[in-house]
Amino acid sequence: MQIDLKELKQVTVLYVEDDDVIRAQTLSVFEKIFKKVYVGKDGRQGINLFKNHQDELDVIVTDLNMPKMTGFELAEEVHKVSKYIPVIFTTAFTDEESLIKAITLNIDSYVTKPLKIQDLTSTILKSVKNSKENRNLYKTTKALANEMLSTKKDYGQLKDNCELLEKEVSFYKFLAEHFIASIKLDKFGIIENISNQFSNIYKYSLMDLKNKPINSITPNAANIQKKMLEAIKIKEAVGFNEKFITADNEELEFHNILYPLYENKDNYASGYMLYQSLER
To answer: What DSSP string runs through 182-239?
Structure first.
């Protein structure tokens, strides 16, 4: 992954490490490349710094084995407050039990010591980008849900249909699939389906667009193709701004989030979901 120094300068980091030498060496680099770095000498200091500066923080980098409070305990406390801030562990240990526990805590990454600054900064930047994309989708769907609460009399019936969606994130995913402007594409960029909201905004019916290439409704097809390749290369969502053309030949520009789909057992991308933000 190529590191963009300008992007790093927009990132605020909480760094927690009990080893004085490692902390000093890493901090000397972090302070040069990141916007702001808060540093703690143990888990207790780390969680206090998090509570005092959580609105500023983009990512937490913490040692795993520390006195007073371990990295695991710190991550558990952080996730009680914020589900979306990325937490990256640094440790000299790679035992199976620790890896499994890290996965159950939804830890974003696991970097072994001795630390390589280029690898660590790449991991930090990747985690921050993913977090921002997830927050954007969550914010968009939650805003729409709140809007529906105040404007839709039949919201109760809709919620009844979602009784099997036990987790909050699953409920918002349901809303995104049905009430956010979205397009489902096959692996070649051919339109397979559009959401009701997309139809309302762009004035197309599914019959108008089904089996047509995505470039039939955008003036910049090359950028869409580029983002499709990027998404399958990194196997993650990518965000970008792009214009789309309505049935009335009007150009509308939105922020888009493109997700690769893996619906088959061969581990190859089977298609894409493209969601559009409510904010233009």
So the answer is: EEEEETTSBEEEE-HHHHHHH---HHHHTT-BGGGS-S-HHHHHHHHHHHHHHTS-EE
